[in-house]
Amino acid sequence: MDDRTSGFVYNRVGGSVYDQTSGFAYNRAGGSVYDRTSGFADNQAGGSEHDRTSGFAYNQVDGYVHDRTSGFAYNRVGGSEHDRTSRFAYDKANGFMTMETITADGLMTEFSLERILTVPKKYKYETHMHTMEASACAGSTGAEMVRAYYRAGYSGIIVTDHFFNGNSCIPAHLPWAQRVELFCRGYENALQEARKLDFHVFFGWEYNDNGAEFLTYGLGKDFLLKHPDMLSWPIEKYLRVVREHGGFVSQAHPYREAWYIGEIRVFPELVDAIEVRNTSHRNPIFDKRALELANKYGLCHTGGSDAHFAEYLPGGGMEFDCELFTIEDFIRAVKEGKGSVIP
Ligand SMILES: [Zn+2]
Ligand SMILES: [Zn+2]
Question: Quick one: 252 and 209 in the same domain?
């Protein structure tokens, strides 16, 4: 996680927290606290340089206080819960971070502390994005997209490249198995990059039928390899077979008006969900109509950004209270209404 505004850096893997502005570093896993500027160090495990009884540590030089019991950090001199410049506060027990609830006199009141402790952490996932390995219109690799989303604070992405009937860059003359292999490269490269980070990458695709597009989740490369004739299926058959195999389908941007969409066609009785928010849309009517359609038919909601470039993430996707580790976790959470669409 990298918050550019505050200069705060958090390494989920190592558990280290580092504030670039104040030079404050904190390693959750080892329990060590280290302030680069003042050179003050506090090792919770060893119990050095702090009062073991109260669990409280204080640095007289820079006025830094760290309370082991509550995990709360406070800078007396700077007058804010940790650092006035970055206005950063960190609660170890809850893993919660905030930059906003600091009172004018620099003291965290009981009220604001309580408020902070009750704000749950959210996990953001992108549900609709493309890579240049498979999508002709995309400008970044799977690995570049992972780094961009990770920096933007997301917990994961679902790679949904245009399938062969959409804006694909996979040569059509190749044998089916080879096309499928090439199609999966964006996802696989993203997955490999994500292994270096604490970040999830799931597989999906965006299937096209004369401009109507379907985000297909929950099926893998094996499904594609097993159905080399799928491009000849009428869309009704595609939707039926995919769902019979455990796939979960959200009709993408059903009311988008664009040069490549000849006529608007919706399939509310044949899909599981509707993409009710696509943050690439500039016209709010497209999403408004999509939401009305979903609600009229009692369909699940998904939201995504349709990002094609790492340099430009439109923002969006879905937010969950719990971390999602698999695409099945995602599907279950959406079905149970546990995800909220990021506006
Ligand atoms: Zn595209
Ligand atoms: Zn798309």
Answer: yes
